[in-house]
Task: inverse folding
């Protein structure tokens, strides 16, 4: 099978400090890849560099378009980068308030990305928004409420609906369940798990939670100090970690 | 016809958090598993039986040696396979039933069993129907099917796990104590399922603590013993 995203030697520095260094991997269509590591390990830097939100200093990023041709993301101008983000990609932020527009209704939040693709029929937009609210387990009766009044878990589910409504080919997620209560987390993880399968999504997800990686991702990258220290099958990494840092991470998890 | 060949399979664990302590568990294991046979791993606790199954399933990484499996008509060495190749082998060729069910929050028992079929491309309705038939045969009451198995008894969870592991017919099956928590009647159901799979050409490698069960299903024993400490 051919990759959807090809990453080679990707690096990003902050002055003398390493953000991420020499990261290489392939992401295949329909595959969810987790990036794990502690705070400061470079996970979010890598994710932002992949998603075009942060310019890398070195390395190459290639994205396979629908017609099968490769797009060099490094050579892309700003207008085309925006088009890609709007039409083919999605980004889910850790804090839903960063990814939502709090001053417009829940329905408008979902419909906005569709409108950006040219959808103008009001009745259809509203029907689609309503269906997506239901899909992420938000009562469609709240379609006209502003999300500022929603709980954190509801806001995150709304952000997921807003991101996935356009059926993106590739989604980036930055700790989408961090900062939520465990029971709320379980609901979002189950939702993501189902949506990823139903929509055949390819996704890169950053998490510091190894249980999240086990639940959602067939493959995982482990990062330490900006570098990938171990990568492979998630269950193999968690059950037979090879690198000292991965062994430390795995042995530090409390089990119930 | 061979379905799985282990050659010189060796596994040591290096524990970096324990001052680099090394645990040697498997030393140069050779085993050929044929279609239509059920080989029982025999040996005391600590002989590396579960480790061997996990290395074959690529859940553990072999230190040395080859895990050759016949996949889609070709031989593939899982010791050198890419993660994507291993995933394809697990989906179509190599099944593994562990002792314990890994419960997924909120996912009902019927969907847990049907999931491997869905991933193999079966339509949702048919996958659920076949999951129901298998759960019925394993005496999991229909009123439990729509519930997540987190609250089920050990025996019920184990039967859900067996159903999930057997629902897609795969040419090679690895079983780690699949009947440890089951009563005699349900052990007999599992023995029947395994015998059917074997007669249909599956190659089975398993750990069966219960001797009656082992005598009932195994066509051959493979003795293992703990390695002397290094």
Result:
């Amino acid at each position: 099978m051919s990759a959807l995203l090809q990453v080679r030697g990707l690096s990003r520095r902050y002055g003398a400090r390493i953000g991420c260094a020499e990261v290489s991997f392939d992401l295949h269509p329909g595959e969810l890849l987790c990036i794990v590591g502690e705070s400061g390990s470079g996970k979010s830097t890598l994710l932002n560099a992949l998603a075009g939100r942060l310019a890398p200093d070195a390395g190459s990023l290639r994205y396979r378009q629908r017609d099968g041709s490769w797009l060099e993301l490094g050579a892309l101008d700003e207008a085309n980068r925006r088009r890609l983000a709007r039409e083919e990609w999605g980004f889910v932020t850790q804090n839903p308030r960063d990814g939502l527009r709090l001053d417009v209704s829940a329905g408008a939040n979902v419909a906005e990305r569709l409108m950006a693709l040219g959808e103008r029929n009001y009745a259809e937009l509203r029907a689609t928004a309503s269906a997506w609210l239901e899909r992420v387990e938000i009562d469609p009766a709240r379609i006209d409420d502003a999300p500022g009044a929603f709980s954190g878990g509801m806001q995150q589910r709304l952000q997921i609906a807003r991101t996935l409504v356009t059926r993106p080919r590739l989604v980036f997620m930055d700790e989408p369940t961090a900062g939520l209560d465990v029971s709320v987390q379980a609901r979002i993880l189950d939702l993501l798990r189902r949506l990823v399968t139903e929509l055949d999504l390819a996704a890169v997800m950053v998490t510091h939670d190894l249980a999240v990686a086990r639940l959602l991702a067939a493959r995982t990258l482990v990062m330490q100090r900006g570098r990938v220290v171990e990568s492979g099958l998630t269950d193999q990494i968690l059950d037979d970690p090879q690198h000292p840092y991965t062994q430390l991470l795995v042995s530090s998890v409390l089990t119930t | 016809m061979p379905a799985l060949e282990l050659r010189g399979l060796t596994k040591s664990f290096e524990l970096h958090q324990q001052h680099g302590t090394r645990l040697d568990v498997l030393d140069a294991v050779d085993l050929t598993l044929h279609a239509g046979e059920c080989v029982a791993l025999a040996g005391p606790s600590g002989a590396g039986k579960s480790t061997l199954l996990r290395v074959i399933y690529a859940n553990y990484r072999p230190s040395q040696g080859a895990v050759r499996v016949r996949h889609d008509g070709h031989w593939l060495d899982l010791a050198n396979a890419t993660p994507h190749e291993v995933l394809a082998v697990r989906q179509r060729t190599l099944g593994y039933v562990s002792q314990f069910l890994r419960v997924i929050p909120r996912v009902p028992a019927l969907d847990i069993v049907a999931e491997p079929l869905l991933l193999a491309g079966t339509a949702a309705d048919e996958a659920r129907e076949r999951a129901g038939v298998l759960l019925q045969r394993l005496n999991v009451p229909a009123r439990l099917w729509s519930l997540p198995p987190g609250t089920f008894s050990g025996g019920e969870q184990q039967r859900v796990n067996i159903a999930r592991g057997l629902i897609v017919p795969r040419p090679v099956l690895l079983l780690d104590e699949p009947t440890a928590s089951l009563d005699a009647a349900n052990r007999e159901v599992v023995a029947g399922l395994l015998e059917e799979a074997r007669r249909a050409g599956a190659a089975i490698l398993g750990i069966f603590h219960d001797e009656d069960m082992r005598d009932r299903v195994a066509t051959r024993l493979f003795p293992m013993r703990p390695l002397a400490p290094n």
Q: What stands out?
A: Residues 101-167 of chain A form one domain. The two ends of chain A are 38 Å apart (CA to CA). Chain A has a mean pLDDT of 93. Residues 182-198 of chain A form the longest helix (17 residues).
